[in-house]
Amino acid sequence: MKKILIPTDFSKYADEAIEVGAEIAKKNDCEIILIHMLELPGQMNDALTGATSIPEVMLFKRKAEETLKNIKNRPYLQGIKVTEVVRLDGAYHGINNYIKQHDMDLIVMGSHGASGINEIIIGSNTEKVVRQSETPVLVIKNKINNFKIQNIIFASDFSKEIKKPFQKMLDFTKLFEAKLNLVMICTPNSFKSTSAARKIVTDFVADFDMPEYSFEIYNENNIEKGIINYSNEKDADLIAFCTHGRTGLNHFFAGSISEDLVNHATKPVLTFRI
């Protein structure tokens, strides 16, 4: 792991993500890229070609650059190589474009989640990045004073399509020398016998150099609730999950378990796109 991207809107949620990113960077001697997307008011954005708008745009940009420099000077970032980036773009599109243009190993984002009508129609920028990013995304939901990953929950159906992201998850697990808890959530609509589930997982992990791990089947009414309840029972430090990155009507009707977890779980969530 060499480069960690941390988007910030200067909120407390972003600050919590920066603190976690700093701890990961120190442990692995990584560079941090702090990026702020300067979303201009609609009327100003429409008038960008006009000369009168340029001074005001530059003022906003300088203010954002000054704020990033102040963040860079915080004590917990001392000794870490930090690069500041300000871009004139929408939050989600700007972050996604930057990811495509640069080789990032991890994205760390803060989130306050979404609920009700906002969750259905708007969604958060964090969950949009989770849906589309081919780089692993670590979502921080609450302030963590001493970020340690000792106990990871990885929930899956252990199908063949997740083998590539599963290797990335193993690399992350080994990086932190964490214990890995594999779990298959069985619901009324996706019931499997214990023997059948064990065979699926045994065959799946046979292709990997596995660290210390355990496997359990957990029964619940739905997958999201099962993952959250199981992670709480195991006192997990991190929930890991693979996402399909659905978009458009397919995403609207099928939904996304990873986005539900980003919105509703209180523990950090690490997502890998299939």
Could you list some keywords that capture this structure?
single chain, 274 residues, alpha/beta, Rossmann fold, 2 domains, ten-stranded mixed beta sheet, 11 helices, 43% helix, 21% strand, elongated, Universal_stress_UspA, Universal stress protein
Description:
The chain is α/β, with parallel strands linked by helices. The protein folds into 2 domains: 3-140, HUPs (Rossmann fold), CATH 3.40.50.620; 151-273, HUPs (Rossmann fold), CATH 3.40.50.620. The protein has helices at residues 12-28, 42-46, 54-72, 91-101, 116-122, 125-132, 163-175, 194-205, 223-233, 248-254, 257-264, and strands at residues 3-7, 31-37, 82-87, 106-110, 137-140, 151-155, 179-186, 213-219, 238-243, 269-273. Strands 3-2-1-4-5-10-9-6-7-8 form a 10-stranded mixed beta sheet, sandwiched between helices. α4 (91-101) runs parallel beside α6, α6 (125-132) packs antiparallel against α11 and α9 packs across α11 (257-264). The longest helix is centred in the first third of the chain and has 19 residues, at 54-72. The two termini are 20 Å apart.
What is the fold named in CATH at topology level of the largest domain?
Rossmann fold
> So, CATH architecture of the largest domain?
3-Layer(aba) Sandwich
The biggest sheet amounts to: 10 strands, mixed
Total number of distinct structural domains: 2
Q: Which CATH C-level class of the largest domain is it?
A: Alpha Beta
Helix content: 40-55%
How much is the radius of gyration in Å?
Answer: 20 Å
Family: Belongs to the universal stress protein A family.
Protein name: Universal stress protein
Organism: Flavobacterium aquariorum
Pfam families: Usp (PF00582)
